[in-house]
Amino acid sequence: MHSRTTSRTASRTTSDVLVIGGGIIGLVTAWRAAQRGLGVALADPEPGGGAAQVAAGMLAAVTELHYGEETLLGLNLASARRYPDFVAELEEVSGQETGYRACGTLAVALDADDRAHLRELHELQRRSGLDSEWLTGRECRRLEPMLAPGVRGGLRVDGDHQIDPRRLASALVVACERAGVVFHRRRVDRLSVIRDRATGAVLDDGLELTADQVVLAAGSLSGTLAGVPEEVLPPVRPVKGQVLRLTVPRAYAPFLSRTVRAVVRGSHVYLVPRENGELVVGATSEELGWDTTVTAGGVYELLRDAHELVPGITELPLTETRAGLRPGSPDNAPLLGPTRLPGLLLATGHYRNGVLLTPVTGDVMAHALVTGELPEVAHPFTPRRFSPTRQELSV
Fold first, then answer.
1. Low-confidence ranges of the chain (pLDDT < 50)
2. Within 10 A of 253 (CB to CB), how many other CB atoms are there?
3. How far is it, in rounded angstroms, from Cα 318 to Cα 279?
4. pLDDT digit string, tens, across residues 277-325
5. What kind and span of H or E run contains 18?
């Protein structure tokens, strides 16, 4: 039905699908498309890089629920349900572990206002048919003895898990290679459009990649690619997040047994304990354009809030500070599937749910590439929901 790589010359290569962007979303799209028999090329200077190198990897469909995002909840839950089988398949194919842990999450409140907010979230979760259990402060500390004495209550969510995004990205690169995906480790200079159809892209070294279909999956950079007609350019913006990594010495283990998160003075903070002894603390959310500077203020605020939550954290070695850019969209939801430009599809705008949405995005995009249609679970997330006039109002 489809050829793999149909031609290759010094100046041009041709494939069924060209994926622009090698973060976890681009990688999973390429892998799933190749599994469906399509010849796939992927262009990115550093496949496996991007936001996944900074993300904490919470798979938090329940505790990440926000008012007004009930539609997104359906997609998040659909992806969360896929995760165990997805991880098992990926680890088998790649021969690599992903750090997937079905350890659950505990969201706690440190004062009366936070407690009231958490109670409201619990009610929203229950109305949405989600499984979460309200605990007293004492019950929270019984589960996690390192918590501060002042914890006033919390929500236990056993279905919110975690994965290590760096290991996930590495496994996806190997899976793509073994599925026959052709990597072009170069920056994409511009999209190629001929007679009102996307036909490929030109790399920064002048190599022209042609393809029957092009998937733009470049994260927060997706809205900046030259050659994309303005009316289909995705309304995606960078949202900065600063993250810390600490190491839990064996003498302190187990420090935390599950992901712990809270709102401290209106700021969200979370602590994600890895099985390898790493503890990830995040994350700020800053609308600062393309700035990826790690600031003293960002580090201070994260450590201050984490210390209020888990006082013992200040005894741990601080091993890494990083800042990355989440791809935000006007409604905080991803853009998936065909655009108004024939031949061009989008897989971007995942904002804070990129890691969680990896399995369902791969399935959705492969289905769209093979059939030309979005599966029902992704209908609300078509890029076509942003008409040019609505884009101007929303951004």
1. 1-10, 389-395
2. 10
3. 9
4. 999 999 788 898 999 999 999 999 999 999 999 999 999 999 999 999 9
5. strand 12-20
Domains in the chain and their CATH numbers? Answer: 7-53+167-235+330-394 (3.50.50.60), 105-158+238-328 (3.30.9.10)
Q: Rounded to an integer, what distance in angstroms lies between the CA atom of residue 350 and that of residue 326?
A: 8
Asked whether the beta carbons of 234 and 383 are under 8 A apart, the reply is yes
3-state secondary structure of 163: coil
CA–CA dist 218, 50 (Å, integer): 9
> DSSP state, 301?
H
Tell me, what amino acid is at 143? L
Distance (Å, whole) CA 261 – CA 35 = 37
What is the CB neighbour count within 10 angstroms for residue 342?
Answer: 13
Cα–Cα dist 217/52, whole Å: 13
C-beta separation of 14 from 41 below 8 A: no
- Taking the C-alpha atoms of residue 273 and residue 286, their distance in angstroms, rounded to an integer, is 24
Enclosing H/E stretch for 33? helix 24-35
DSSP 108-131: EESSHHHHHHHHHHHHHHHHTT--
For 75, phi then psi, to 5°, come to -70, -40
172 phi/psi in degrees, rounded to 5: -70, -35
Cβ atoms 201, 43 nearer than 8 A? yes
**CA–CA distance, 336 with 346 (Å, rounded to integer):** 5
What per-residue confidence (pLDDT) applies to 258? 97
Residue 320 makes CB contacts below 8 A (sequence gap 6+) with 244, 245
Q: Token pair of 255, please?
A: 């420090």
Tokens encoding 69: 């995002």
